[in-house]
Design a protein that fits this description.
By secondary structure, the chain is an all-alpha fold. Helix content is 75%, strand content 0%. Helix 1 packs antiparallel against helix 4. 4% of the residues are buried.
């Protein structure tokens, strides 16, 4: 196996682990919300914002990225 292939596998695995970590934090409704509505809102708007709608959908996005990066490990 070539060195570049090993480096690619390591990078994909690291990205997969990062996405699993972010997804688990989002499912637990902890941590920073990676959503445009939340990112562009002011501090007052963030305090009033209903976060349950964001935290229900956002972890699924990160789970799909985990599936993408894990499938790339087998190429």
């Amino acid at each position: 196996m070539a060195t570049t292939a090993r480096i690619g596998i390591i990078i994909n695995f690291a990205l997969m682990v990062f996405c699993v970590f972010i997804s688990a934090r989002q499912f637990a409704e902890k941590g920073f919300l990676f959503n445009n509505a939340y990112l562009f809102a002011t501090k007052d708007e963030r305090a009033k914002m209903e976060k349950s709608l964001i935290t229900d959908n956002l972890p699924l996005c990160f789970v799909s990225w985990v599936q993408y990066f894990s499938s790339a490990l087998y190429l």
